[in-house]
Design a protein that fits this description.
Number of strands: 4
Oligomer: single chain
Strand order of the largest sheet: 1-2-3-4
Order of helices and strands: EEEHEH
Structural class: alpha+beta
């Protein structure tokens, strides 16, 4: 992990809306949704309302190597 420490979470509502993987680095939050065969997805509205400054990215078969390298 190259001495890069992160707090790791997931997010899910009672209605089963979710973000698969969340990293907290310092004061910034990054969300990731894993969908192997999809080119896009919709971030749940509740998540955007709760974490308006969070960047959420889709990780799929086209960009997973980039995600793994970071």
């Amino acid at each position: 992990n190259h001495d890069r420490f992160k707090n790791i979470y997931f997010w899910r509502t009672h209605l089963k809306q979710e973000i698969d993987y969340i990293e907290e680095k310092g004061e910034k939050i990054f969300g990731y949704e894993f969908k192997w065969n999809k080119k896009n997805f919709k971030v749940p509205k509740k998540f955007v309302q709760s974490y308006p400054n969070c960047v959420v990215k889709l990780i799929n078969r086209f960009n997973y190597l980039e995600f793994l390298k970071n």
